[in-house]
Write a structure and sequence with these properties.
The protein is an alpha/beta fold. The chain has 10 helices and 6 strands, in the order H-H-H-H-H-H-H-E-E-H-E-H-E-E-H-E. It is elongated, with a radius of gyration of 29 Å.
């Protein structure tokens, strides 16, 4: 466990340095491009070039947010934040998305206005082409640096910045095309091309917004992670089944998982504890996460319990959208036979614990007391 913590610290420190370098580079390069394009856009009175310039300014602001985000997310866990601060990366990406949407919406409005009320453009000099071509090269470099940093750190703000830079290359090329058309054939399509750039910005912002909000809300884990946990736990001798797998993260390098391990009810408490303790320790180290395992004793060796479970499963499968039954227990409490189980149903199902219990009491064994938990998957 100590080695795992040391590795996490090393990865956090490495990711912090990589992200900070990329973020600082983004701040200075975007401010430089903003200043150059703004001057050119004002000189030729091109809303397309000015929109592209202010897009670079928003990228500079996004880089500042990224740097601040890395600074905060790299902080270790403390009393107020026992799981660390890594989720602040998602907050930083969310702020970037909002900035991008504001810039995109503002210049879409200006571009549409320019389409219906076009303004005359000034003559185009060679310096315009030089600045725009230089901008495309710098943005291509940014996209490459951000993409490489994302592959190393798996940081969402870096992924967002890389995607944004790719769109920026496209928007700069659009501005270049708009300028070229006016210079060569005299066609003033400034408003149209400005609208295209604005749409680029908004499309990229919406994508970043979704990717930053999903993990904050608690998005579904990768199926490969869930199945990996299931397969590895089932491989241990003495494990009869695995269910109720829950995976949540506090940043890409801080993943926590919980699962229920079914063991024989004949196993001693000490042996069951030793088994799940080994499962937690070994799978955590192997998969690079923190695993907590819960013991569920099963009486599958008792013919009565096994027969009742199968009959109940078949009954519910015919009348509901039941997927599976797990954590099944048959007990006698205060003179009554009590049946405990979890029923797995699809997310689209309208089944509830009360509806399942009502159905069983009405049409199955009415003499039993049922205690049902509905799990949606």
């Amino acid at each position: 466990m100590e080695k795992k913590k040391e590795k996490e610290c090393e990865l956090r420190a490495s990711g912090y340095k990589e992200g900070m370098r990329a973020g600082v580079f983004g701040v200075f390069s975007n401010v430089l491009l903003f200043a150059a394009k703004l001057v050119v856009g004002i000189l030729v009175r091109s809303i397309t070039v000015v929109a592209d310039a202010l897009n670079n300014l928003s990228d500079g602001a996004s880089s500042v947010v990224t740097v601040v985000g890395y600074k905060i997310s790299s902080r270790p866990a403390d009393k107020g934040h026992p799981f660390g601060h890594a989720r602040f990366e998602y907050v930083a990406a969310l702020v970037i998305a909002v900035i991008m949407m504001m810039i995109g919406a503002l210049f879409l409005k200006e571009s549409v206005t320019s389409i219906f009320s076009p303004h005359p453009l000034q003559s185009v000099g060679a310096y315009v082409y030089v600045i725009l071509a230089f901008s495309a090269l710098v943005k291509g470099g940014q996209a490459t640096i951000y993409a490489v940093t994302y592959r190393k750190t798996r940081s969402l703000p870096m992924k967002a910045a890389a995607a944004d830079s790719v769109w920026d290359v496209a928007s700069t090329l659009v501005a270049l095309l708009s300028t070229l058309l006016f210079d060569v054939v005299g066609w003033n399509a400034d408003g149209y091309f400005g609208a295209v750039i604005s749409v680029f910005i908004l499309a990229s912002a919406i994508k970043v917004l979704k990717e930053s909000v999903d993990p904050l809300l608690g998005d579904a884990p990768l199926e490969s992670t869930v199945e990996g946990l299931r397969e590895k736990a089932l491989a241990y001798e003495g494990v009869l089944g695995v269910h109720d797998i829950v995976v949540h993260s506090y940043g890409a390098a801080h993943i926590y998982a919980v699962l229920h391990v079914e063991v024989s009810a004949d196993m001693t408490l000490s042996d069951a504890h030793d088994l799940v303790d080994r499962i937690e320790r070994e799978i955590s180290a192997e998969m690079g996460l923190t695993l907590v395992a819960h013991v569920d004793p099963q009486s599958e060796d008792l013919a009565a319990a096994a027969e009742l479970k199968e009959a109940l499963r078949a009954f519910l499968a015919e009348r509901t959208d039941l997927l599976a039954i797990h954590d099944f227990r048959l007990r006698k409490e205060e003179g009554k036979l009590c049946v405990y189980f979890d029923a797995e149903v699809p997310w689209t199902s309208d089944a509830t614990a009360d509806s399942v219990i009502s159905l069983l009491k009405r049409e199955f064994h009415t003499e039993y007391e049922y205690f049902v938990t509905v799990d949606k998957r």
